[in-house]
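Is this the right way to post structure tokens for a design question? Let me know if I should format differently. Anyway, here goes:
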């Protein structure tokens, strides 16, 4: 009940409470409506934007008064991916793994490349879905043949409940050719 009293006290205030915004605090279960307001005072290269930064590391940087990635001291221990991101930002250079070319050879051509667009409406758009459920609303498919020629299947937009139509439209777009399929997504990319 103490937590509820604290919340009512915050609601009674005439000014906004002081909150140290973080990705973990402000994006689960959904992105906070005030995220942009809270981020306005942070630098564009805010340390909280480092790839998968652990809350303990973020707290350690904050305790040192460090808000900018470029201000992270050289002796501050970072995991490899975060250290690479820091080096790229500091140098302005793009990093590409030496192993990338060899790793991609196994995946074609031929290969399909799919790009999905999704939506997560607060009011469910389709029967059987819940508020803020991510559902596909359109996709496109590109096909790279053995000769390196890239072709594009027509974009698809969901007319009604998307799961069945997504599967059927993808099957149609990929039915006449063989090759690996790639999903282009900020959350995961995996061959299938």
């Amino acid at each position: 009940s103490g937590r509820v009293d604290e919340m009512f006290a915050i609601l009674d205030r005439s000014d906004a409470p002081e909150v140290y915004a973080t990705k973990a605090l402000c994006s689960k279960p959904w992105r906070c409506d005030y995220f942009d307001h809270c981020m306005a005072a942070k630098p564009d290269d805010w340390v909280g934007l480092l790839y998968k930064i652990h809350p303990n590391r973020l707290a350690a940087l904050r305790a040192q008064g460090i808000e900018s990635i470029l201000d992270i001291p050289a002796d501050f221990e970072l995991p490899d991916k975060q250290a690479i991101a820091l080096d790229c930002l500091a140098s302005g250079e793009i990093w590409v793994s030496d192993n990338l070319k060899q790793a991609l050879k196994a995946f074609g051509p031929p290969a399909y490349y799919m790009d999905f667009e999704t939506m997560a409406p607060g009011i469910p758009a389709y029967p059987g879905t819940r508020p803020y459920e991510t559902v596909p609303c359109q996709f496109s498919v590109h096909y790279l043949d053995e000769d390196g020629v890239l072709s594009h299947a027509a974009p698809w937009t969901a007319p009604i409940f998307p799961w069945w139509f997504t599967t059927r439209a993808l099957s149609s777009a990929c039915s006449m050719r063989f090759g690996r399929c790639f999903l282009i997504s900020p959350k995961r990319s995996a061959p299938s």
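Format looks fine. Someone answered above. Worth noting: The CA atoms of residues 46 and 67 lie 5 Å apart. Helices lie at 2-12, 23-26, 35-39, 55-63, 80-91, 100-105, 162-174.
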